[in-house]
Every structure is written in C-alpha cells, then in structure tokens.
Design brief:
It is a single chain. The chain is an alpha+beta fold. It has 2 domains: 146 residues, 60s Ribosomal Protein L30, Chain: A (2-Layer Sandwich), CATH 3.30.1330; 250 residues, Orthogonal Bundle (2-methylcitrate dehydratase PrpD), CATH 1.10.4100. 55% of the residues lie in helices and 10% in strands. The protein is built from 16 helices and 8 strands. The strands form 2 sheets. The protein has a 6-stranded mixed β-sheet with strand order 3-2-4-5-6-7. A two-stranded antiparallel ribbon has the order 1-8. A hairpin with a 2-residue loop joins strand 6 and strand 7. It holds the Pfam family SDH_alpha.
C-alpha cells in the first residue's frame, strides 16, 4: 500500500468525486430530471403553460415508463413527471424538486388530465437528452438537459437564448479518468476520514431509512420481504436490505436516497450490503466509512466507462462495488478486493437494464449475491482468470472490457428494448 498525500491530485479529486456523486434524490432519477426540467421551463415562462412539447431520448422513455413518480398519488410516466414539476416543482432543489408535491396531488392529477402534452422520441447522439418547451399565448420557454440529470445546456425564451454551454457530461465535474483501482485503494486507506464523513453519513442515514421502509410496508413485488422470509443468513440479509430500498424507491416511496452514478438503485446497492456486514461484524465506524468510500468509488470507476444510461444493468457494477467494500471490511487485502470485483463481473455482466421498475430490486439482489460468491471464491483459492470470456489479466483491463460491453456492445440491445416499449404503447 502506498500512502496518498493531500497534495496528490487524486486525493483531492476523489473527495470531490464522492461529493459530486453522492447526492440526495427523491424517486427514480430520470422522472425527477423531467420534473426538474419542467419546473425550470415553467419558471422561465413565468406562468403555467397551456401546452407542453417534450422531446426525449430512448433511454429516458425506457427508464420512466414503468416507475411511479413519488408524491403524485402513484402516477407513472413522462407526462406525470412533467405535471408534477409544473405544479409543485422547486427547481432550486434539483433532484429533490418534488419533495413536497404530495400537498398538490389533486392539482397534479387535474393538470395531467387537462394540459395538452406531446412526447417525441429523439436520437441526437446523446443517450440522455430531455428538451421541454412550454407555451402560453404567444410566448414560450425551452429547457434542454443533456448527458446528465441536472446538466442544463440551454435555456431559451421567446427566441432569446438566455443560457447555453457545452453538453459534455463532465464539463463541470472532476475528471473521472483519474480513477484507478490502485489509487482508490491507497486513498481509502490514507484519507483523513473527516474529509469524507459528512457525505457518507448522509448516505448511511437516508439509505437505511428507505430500506427499513421497504421491509416494513408493501411496495412493488416486495423482493426484500421475500428474501427475508427465505433465510436469515448474512448474505440473504445484505441482499434483502438493498432490494427493499429499491422496492420502496421504485414504487412511490417519498423518502430520498443518496445516489451513485446518477442512480438511486446504484446508491442503495453500494451502501446497504456494506452496512449490514459492518453491523454483523461490529467493525469500527471509521472502517465502515472507508469501506463505503471504496464501494462507491469502485462503482463510479466501473460506471464511468459504461456511461450514464445503458442496456447494461447498473446494479451489476454497484454490486461489485459492494463486494469490494465488504471484502475490505473483512480485512481483505488489495488482491482480495480486486478479485472479488472481477469474479462478480464475470458472473452477472450479461444482465440487461430494461428500465426502472419493480424488478430492479431482484436484479440488485442477484448482483449482491454474485459479489459475495466472488468474494467466497477467492477466499477459497478459486477465481475466474484471463481468457475466461470478457475477463482479462489485470483489473483495469477487465474494467475496460466491461465498459466497452456496456457502452458499445449493448447499444443495439438498448435500441431493441426501447423499440419494444414504444411498440407496446
């Protein structure tokens, strides 16, 4: 292990990345991005529109179609998210912009029934793209979000451009190419814990609360509850807590989560299994925070190569991150951690993302299960080796392959999934 000093560029970058990525969001982040854009467009127009035109990329359609928009009385879909943003959105709160929308459920439902809204599927070379145009009388406003959930690249009103910028996702974010496994490992062992504690403590508090909500009440397919009814071993409990958080989040729970890589499900998967293991083994709170930092940074590193949205299920990368965090908790060294990641990815890298919905919880459970199998494999002297499918010698080369698979290899898969969903409507 090398000691990483504060003066090291990566030391400060990794702190910044954690703070940029681990932010609160309410509900599935794609419908919330739509609500955020609608609130911005309404504010620009200065009044409630009489007509709304919505242009979205296919992956937005995929990730909004089947998920409940929180605080709307269990409404689903693009138009519901737009209506919530128009009626109750507070754009200053970004991904928590409809946190108080439940007070206006009737107004949202009424607007959804009466406001003319048109939806257009666009493909302009961006996986993540939202363009919202609000009209009233002879006036209009336009908001363009691209490449990331709150990355507004254009604001326009009555043919006057009020704001514009480059669309590149990372334009205002810390360079993710600075991430690599050896440096992440050095960082989590040497970082002054007070510098990352606040953001991780918030993740612990928020994500634990929604997991317990999911285990206590009825949400979606109740995957967390089903798992808890099967067995009481530690692996099952870790899977159940992560799944229960998703059960609640995908099915209308009003509690926020702390996300990872733009995804609440990935934030839940990175954190909850690590928390379950930390409690069971009574590890120190400081070691827990270091393990959480590892889990989150590993997931971000993996997801950077894949991109914001893909047909590659993000639970897979987050599950591998959780496996790394748990391996660290249990005194695993660098080799144990990296082999846990590789073994996990070798098992479940074929899992597709077919949108946000109740079954995400089951995919999370499968990903956590694969991570723990990968950990146990290496503990017992077993591993998948270079040449086994997409696995190659060296953790970074394997992660490059995973990124290529998710970013390039699954493009057509993503297109077919979107086509199926559009044909169904």
């Amino acid at each position: 292990m090398k000691e990483m000093h504060k003066e090291d560029q990566k030391y400060q970058a990794y702190i910044a990345i954690l703070k940029e990525e681990l932010v609160p969001a309410m509900g599935c982040t794609e419908p919330i991005a739509l609500a955020y854009g609608a609130a911005l467009a309404r504010d620009l127009l200065g009044e409630m529109p009489s007509k709304v035109d919505i242009q979205v990329s296919g992956s937005i359609i995929k990730n909004v179609k089947s998920v409940i928009v929180p605080n709307t009385g269990h409404l689903k879909g693009i138009k519901a998210a737009i209506a919530a943003g128009l009626v109750a959105g507070d754009a200053t709160q970004k991904l928590e912009c409809i946190a108080h929308a439940s007070q206006k459920e009737q107004e949202i439902a009424s607007l959804l029934d009466t406001l003319p809204m048109t939806i257009h599927h666009i493909e302009n070379g961006h996986v993540f793209e939202i363009i919202i145009r609000c009209e009233k009388d002879n006036h209009y406003s336009l908001v363009h979000i691209c490449d990331d959930h709150t990355n507004v690249i254009r604001k326009e009103k009555d043919h006057q451009v009020l704001f514009t910028k480059e669309s590149a996702k990372q334009a205002q974010k810390t360079d993710r190419s600075l991430l690599d496994m050896e440096s992440i490992y050095d960082f989590i062992n040497t970082v002054e814990i007070d510098e990352i504690a606040e953001v991780l403590e918030r993740q612990i508090a928020y994500n634990t609360a929604i997991a317990e909500e999911g285990l206590t009440h009825d949400y979606g397919a109740n995957i967390g509850k089903v798992l808890m009814s099967q067995a009481d071993d530690l692996v099952t409990k870790a899977k159940a807590y992560a799944a229960a958080g998703s059960d609640a989040r995908m099915n209308g729970c009003e509690l926020p989560v702390v996300i990872n890589s733009g995804s609440g499900n990935q934030g839940l998967t990175c954190s909850l299994p690590v928390l379950v293991y930390a409690k069971a083994y009574r590890v120190s709170h400081e070691r827990l925070l270091r393990a959480l930092a590892l889990s989150n940074l590993v997931a971000i590193h993996e997801k950077t190569g894949i991109g914001t949205l893909s047909a590659y299920c993000g639970a897979v990368t987050a599950g591998a991150g959780a496996g790394a965090g748990i391996a660290y908790l249990l005194e695993g060294d660098y080799k144990t951690i990296t082999h846990t990641i590789v073994n996990s990815l070798a098992i479940v890298s074929g899992m597709i993302c077919d949108g946000a919905k109740a079954s995400c919880a089951a995919k999370i459970a499968s990903s956590v299960d694969a991570a723990m199998l990968g950990y146990e494999m290496y503990k017992q002297g077993q591993q998948f080796k270079g040449g086994d499918g997409i696995v190659v010698k060296g953790i970074e080369k394997t992660l490059d392959h995973v990124g290529r698979l998710g970013r390039e290899g699954m493009k057509e898969t993503n297109n077919e999934i979107i086509a199926m969903m559009i044909d169904e409507e």
